[in-house]
Design brief:
CATH topology of chain B: MetI-like fold
Order of helices and strands of chain A: EEEHEEEHEHHHEHEHEEHEEEEEEEEHEE
Strand content of chain A: 35-45%
Number of domains of chain A: 2
Largest interface: A-B, 30 and 23 residues
Distance between the termini of chain B: 44 Å
GO molecular function, one term (chain B): molybdate ion transmembrane transporter activity
Largest sheet of chain A: 6 strands, mixed
CATH superfamily of chain B: MetI-like
Family (chain B): Belongs to the binding-protein-dependent transport system permease family. CysTW subfamily.
CATH architecture of chain B: Orthogonal Bundle
Radius of gyration of chain A: 22 Å
CATH class of chain B: Mainly Alpha
Function (chain B): Part of the binding-protein-dependent transport system for molybdenum; probably responsible for the translocation of the substrate across the membrane.
CATH superfamily of the largest domain in chain A: P-loop containing nucleotide triphosphate hydrolases
Membrane topology (chain B): Multi-pass membrane protein
Number of helices of chain B: 10
CATH topology of the largest domain in chain A: Rossmann fold
Transmembrane segments (chain B): 17-37, 49-70, 90-108, 129-155, 198-220
Structural class of chain A: alpha+beta
Shape of chain B: globular
CATH architecture of the largest domain in chain A: 3-Layer(aba) Sandwich
Helix content of chain A: 10-25%
Structural class of chain B: mainly alpha
Number of strands of chain A: 21
Oligomer: heterodimer
CATH class of the largest domain in chain A: Alpha Beta
Order of helices and strands of chain B: HHHHHHHHHH
Number of strands of chain B: 0
Strand content of chain B: under 5%
Helix content of chain B: over 70%
Number of domains of chain B: 1
Number of helices of chain A: 9
Chain lengths: 369, 230
């Protein structure tokens, strides 16, 4: 799956000038509101015709102003889940789900109603009317409805933005299952770094109608300069780790990667399975000597690879832990007091508080939470 | 309350004329409402003005214009009579046409308002699921505007039941053919001792209108319950 977008579009006083290619399995369009994310999604869906440019999915040209190609929305077979679920109010959940099913040609119909209903946990809602569903239930039905049309690509435009934290963590595992089990390509719009870090395989950062950066999640997430000022504290790195062991006595799970071992409160994942861990830069401290008698248990050894002067009075320290980057955000005062410099051997001390469930991701990990 | 055969005829004719006027104007009314609600073209306000014209013109003027154009010697009337054998002047069909035109602005207005109230994002969602324009209209838009359509039909029916000026000008007042309830009541008031007949027909007129109104209310309530999904 490759997504090629190269468009210019003027909407009132807003100029969109976006160009990116993503091989992503789950491509996140990330940026503050008003940065043009929704416009791009609307162009991929065919709801907006760009002034100039083209949209191409997997070699299939959907829009190309130069050669006059514009495939109408209903012929694109691109599913969409919007911030407001947009369920049809005059139909039951069952009929909502079935709506798109028959539009797909029979041999391209891959979605199985029973499996998707089970996957999304909406079996008990089938006979209800949309207005009797909670926000989270509505959103799950909307996802199911989009999937049952057997789309080639699924667009999700801030699907969690209108939900509270509890509902968000209710839905996220389902989105991970779409990504990992159904393997359907997804373009995911969000302004939340937590969602993007957890879900995305690739990130396109939008700012002011332009693409500020794009690339694999691991690379982009480290660049705190790309984040809006108020989200900068949320930035950090994503570590792909495996579950090494469970310590039932202390209720702890040990995760392992090249960088070392990290202990987290026990998660529901089998030994050997892969999990993704987000380390916020603000939760990582730097020590020049191996700390002893410290309550924080997670200490990674590494070398300072880079010192970036982000914004006074803070600096970002990139620590290379055996090939894996860990990002720390400390004050300039500490930098000078510890006389930190590139190449120096240091210890990254991770406060345990950094591991909440939101930051831990695994397709099995969160079921039941 | 005994009715004479002529009075019965007037009641039956009125209902027939009103039903035909309502059903006959529905397709064009729906189309016009769609164009006015969704269209964006030069001359839209002109079309809007023409649709609303019967509402502001004296009914006699509308009836006279109909007589001029749809009468036997009128350009449209002559053409229809010659090629399709459809005659409007001095027939009940003419009464239905006059009533349809008089009720048209009311019908269009009710439907147009309901179309404008439809959340177009629902239609966009249906599009992403693979539904083409016609299908979206049939399965999303139409069910959502059903209460508006019902309201429009009832307004048209009600207007037709009460239409007098345009009808009597266009098709006259022929018992059994074009004498609707209002014309019959008018006739009774013009003859000595006709008060009893006028009162009988008035009561019937009130009863029919009330029944239609209540039936539409019940239908509209059912339709909007469906939409809100309660």
């Amino acid at each position: 799956m490759t997504i090629l977008v190269d468009v210019s579009h003027r909407l009132g006083g807003f100029q969109l000038e976006a160009r990116f290619a993503s091989p992503g399995h789950l491509t996140a369009l990330f940026g503050p509101s008003g940065s043009g994310k929704t416009s791009i999604v609307s162009m991929i869906a065919g709801l907006i015709r760009p002034d100039r440019g083209s949209v191409e999915i997997d070699g299939r040209v959907l829009t190309d102003r130069a050669s006059g190609i514009f495939l109408p929305t209903h012929r694109r077979r691109i599913g969409a889940v919007f911030q407001d679920a947009r369920l049809f109010p005059h139909m039951s959940v069952r009929r909502n789900l079935a709506y798109g099913k028959w539009f797909a040609p029979a041999r391209e119909r891959y979605a199985d109603t029973g499996r998707i209903v089970e996957l999304l946990g909406i079996g008990h809602l089938l006979e209800r009317r949309p207005n009797l569903l909670s926000g989270g239930e509505k959103q799950r039905v909307a996802i199911g409805r989009a999937l049952l049309a057997s789309p080639r690509l699924l667009l999700m435009d801030e699907p969690l933005a209108s939900l509270d934290e509890a509902r968000k963590s209710e839905i996220m595992p389902y989105i991970e299952r779409l990504r990992d089990e159904l393997k359907i390509p997804i373009v995911y719009v969000s302004h939340s770094i937590a969602e993007v870090a957890r879900l995305a395989t690739d990130i396109v950062v939008m700012s002011d109608g332009k693409v500020a950066a794009s690339g694999p999640t691991g690379e982009i997430i480290q660049r705190l300069d790309l984040l809006p000022a108020e989200e900068r504290g949320e930035g950090g790195v994503v570590l792909d780790m495996t579950v090494a062991a469970h310590d039932i006595r202390y209720g702890v799970t040990v995760l392992k990667s090249a960088a070392g071992e990290i202990r987290v409160p026990r998660i529901r994942a089998e030994t050997g399975s892969a999990v993704r861990l987000r380390l916020r830069a603000r939760d990582v401290m730097i020590a020049t000597a191996e700390p002893v008698a410290l309550s924080a248990q997670n200490i990674l050894r590494g070398k300072i690879a880079r010192i970036a002067h982000a914004s006074n009075p803070l600096v970002e320290i990139h620590v290379d832990c055996h090939g894996q980057q860990v990002l720390s955000r400390i004050t300039r005062l500490s930098l000078d007091a510890l006389r930190l410099h590139v190449g120096q051997e240091v210890f990254a001390v991770i406060k345990s508080v950094a591991f909440d469930h939101e930051n831990l991701s695994n397709s099995l990990a969160d079921q039941g939470f | 309350m005994e009715l004479t055969p002529d009075e019965w005829n007037a009641v039956r004719l009125s209902i027939k004329v009103a039903v035909w006027a309502m059903l006959g104007s529905l397709p064009l009314g729906l189309l016009t409402a769609l164009i006015l609600a969704r269209g964006n073209f030069w001359g839209k306000s002109l079309l809007n003005g023409i649709v609303h014209l019967p509402l502001i013109l004296p009914p006699v003027v509308t009836g006279y214009l109909l007589l001029l154009s749809f009468g036997r010697r009128g350009p449209v009337g002559a053409f229809l009579a010659e090629h399709f054998g459809i005659v409007f002047s001095f027939r009940w069909t003419g009464a239905a046409l006059a009533c349809a035109i008089m009720g048209f602005p009311l019908m269009v207005r009710a439907i147009r308002l309901s179309i404008e109230a439809v959340d177009r994002r629902l239609e966009a969602a249906a599009g992403t699921l693979g539904a083409g324009t016609v299908w979206v209209f049939a399965t999303i838009t139409l069910p959502l505007i059903l209460p508006g359509i019902i309201a429009g039909m009832i307004l048209s029916f009600g207007k037709a039941m009460g239409e007098f000026g345009a009808t009597i000008t266009f098709v006259s007042n022929i018992p059994g053919e074009t004498q609707t309830l209002p014309s019959a009541i008018y006739t009774f008031t013009q003859i000595p001792g006709g008060d009893a007949g006028a009162l009988r027909l008035t009561l019937i007129s009130v009863a029919i209108s009330m029944a239609a109104l209540m039936a539409s209310e019940a239908l509209a309530q059912r339709a909007s319950r469906r939409i809100e999904g309660a």
